[in-house]
């Protein structure tokens, strides 16, 4: 275990706790109203998941439920890609081993270790105060423009509930939250085949089975034009970029808000995607 | 804490729920000891908060309530509700108060049954015949406005609006304090709603108050299965499949986890019959449906 002697580091970042449950500045947690977010669903002696009242928001599933969730969420997500919570569920239920591997990679890197200790979250409340003022050539400005342009908010991300270990749950949550950063870095806009290209990148970087499933099954539902673009341009790009760039889970993106976007890409050795018909890139002019 | 809870879950499943109820409070929580506690699924909550928590559950499920009923019971809930209405066997001139009626399943069936009666002859047109039947009505009463709105939408689709057929009324309120005068209804049904009420005794007393003499109280509710093998299969299905189906179909696991747990916390058939007798109902009987998955309790105000 690592001890941090300089407590200032901890106070600068928001620690990973459920926003409604914990007051970071106080050490006691008093709850008189037991809201559903205060419950934990544990597997009782008979093997059924039942609810008790502890201050965690977690669900334990037994094997049957995990299998049912895997197949069910895959089918629902395939039929209705707008169900983001189904994609998230698939990732959580199938991601056990891959998350451990990512954690090992993070622990062997000094910045990864720092991320695991401080557990920074990417939420509206942890944005820097000047994010909206940053020029669009910077990483932070480009990110802000991209999020606002699409009307996204980082608070909309599904919380990780079905992974039992807290550290694993944090790694999964971090993976979800930096997904938007990877969109900005690669310059890929929101479209079905764009998401599939980013999923290929994620598969090479993280090795999560749900990304592999989306990468191989997702292209079945896109048009021939998009399939052509995927096979000829986007997937080779994703493989090149994923293999050449630095491990993206070990980067503390919060330190680079004000860095110029192309500079940041050079630091990471990240090759942005430039489509041949120039429809998909938001690189700066 | 989990090992200590595991020690408590010994014994047959019927006793597990009571142990969770008495000892599941967290140790560092001093402030809840002063207020009266009740169960919310397997959690223990303050009595004052249960109502708003139930309201939140039903706000979340209202838009897909009928779909999820079909998914969870594989369509059998329709047969249960048909059985309830044929037990009631209404005749034209009956006035129904359908408490926790939500989307109006029971009220629609009630009015359809009356229309199929051989004595039904509505007074419509300019010169109605002399032997028309008495008018009947159904009042759907629910604490949750979003469920009532869903029901109103269904009513309009089935032709129940102010101009064509005003026989259904949609009223919002708390069943522990009904806004009706004494002795106004001759049928009172509560279908899959009474286990969500905080004070079941109060609901039964109010039911006794608003019923006319000779009126009938019917309650269709999930109950305990007597046969242990079937109970095991039912528990396995309930706890393993239903919350996961809730998560897959509508994205809401917690509401369906509450649902299956609240079924276990409701008193069994005999206990509920005793509660009805305490409230003043007479000739209290019950019959099990689907081997005890549901039970219809019937009592008369005499």
Automatic annotation (TrEMBL), chain A:
Pfam families: Coq4. One of its GO terms (cellular component) is extrinsic component of mitochondrial inner membrane. It comes from the Eukaryota. It is a peripheral membrane protein. Its main location: mitochondrion. One of its GO terms (molecular function) is zinc ion binding. Its cofactor is Zn(2+). Keywords: Lyase, Membrane, Metal-binding, Mitochondrion, Mitochondrion inner membrane, Ubiquinone biosynthesis, Zinc. It catalyses: a 4-hydroxy-3-methoxy-5-(all-trans-polyprenyl)benzoate + H(+) = a 2-methoxy-6-(all-trans-polyprenyl)phenol + CO2. Zn(2+) binds at residues 179-180, 183, 195. InterPro entries: Coq4, Coq4_euk. It is found in: Mitochondrion inner membrane. Its EC number is 4.1.1.130. Pathway: Cofactor biosynthesis; ubiquinone biosynthesis. It is an enzyme of class 4 (lyase). Lyase that catalyzes the C1-decarboxylation of 4-hydroxy-3-methoxy-5-(all-trans-polyprenyl)benzoic acid into 2-methoxy-6-(all-trans-polyprenyl)phenol during ubiquinone biosynthesis. Component of a multi-subunit COQ enzyme complex. Belongs to the COQ4 family. This is Ubiquinone biosynthesis protein COQ4 homolog, mitochondrial.
UniProtKB/TrEMBL annotation, chain B:
Keywords: Membrane, Methyltransferase, Mitochondrion, Mitochondrion inner membrane, S-adenosyl-L-methionine, Transferase, Ubiquinone biosynthesis. It catalyses: a 2-methoxy-6-(all-trans-polyprenyl)benzene-1,4-diol + S-adenosyl-L-methionine = a 5-methoxy-2-methyl-3-(all-trans-polyprenyl)benzene-1,4-diol + S-adenosyl-L-homocysteine + H(+). CDD domains: AdoMet_MTases (cd02440). Its main location: mitochondrion. It holds the Pfam family Ubie_methyltran. S-adenosyl-L-methionine binds at residues 103, 142, 174-175, 191. GO terms for biological process: methylation. It is found in: Mitochondrion inner membrane. One of its GO terms (cellular component) is extrinsic component of mitochondrial inner membrane. PROSITE patterns: SAM_MT_UBIE, UBIE_1, UBIE_2. It is a peripheral membrane protein. It is an enzyme of class 2 (transferase). Pathway: Cofactor biosynthesis; ubiquinone biosynthesis. Its EC number is 2.1.1.201. SUPFAM superfamilies: S-adenosyl-L-methionine-dependent methyltransferases (SSF53335). GO terms for molecular function: 2-methoxy-6-polyprenyl-1,4-benzoquinol methyltransferase activity. Methyltransferase required for the conversion of 2-polyprenyl-6-methoxy-1,4-benzoquinol (DDMQH2) to 2-polyprenyl-3-methyl-6-methoxy-1,4-benzoquinol (DMQH2). HAMAP family: MenG_UbiE_methyltr. Component of a multi-subunit COQ enzyme complex. Belongs to the class I-like SAM-binding methyltransferase superfamily. MenG/UbiE family. This is 2-methoxy-6-polyprenyl-1,4-benzoquinol methylase, mitochondrial. It comes from Polysphondylium violaceum.
